[in-house]
User: What shape does this take?
Amino acid sequence: MQDGKELLKMIRELLDSKKAEDIVVLDVSKHTNIADYFMIATANSKVHAKALMDYLLEELEKKGIRPDHVEGAEEGGWILIDLIDIIVHIFLKEWREHYDLEWLYSAAKRVEA
Assistant: This one.
């Protein structure tokens, strides 16, 4: 398995390659015990969000990486992919603005991935 920074970089590149927008990585390790990093990305539609999720899961599976669980795939407004140390959040723009994880975790350091 790759270390956290390598995995973050790979996930960011995968999401970016499929036109995810405004990708942000937060180091939340000092602020919560549920993960070390949150990766937050915006999709431009529910179809796009689901396509991002499917592509990401497919590419991670090729590397032998399976999520602990996935939530929100049916709704598509906020999809959460729990990779234990990294939680990937794929939002529609209005959902991202409403839940505003960047504000909730504003004390978390932004990480370049």
In short: The helical segments are 4-17, 46-62, 93-99, 101-104.
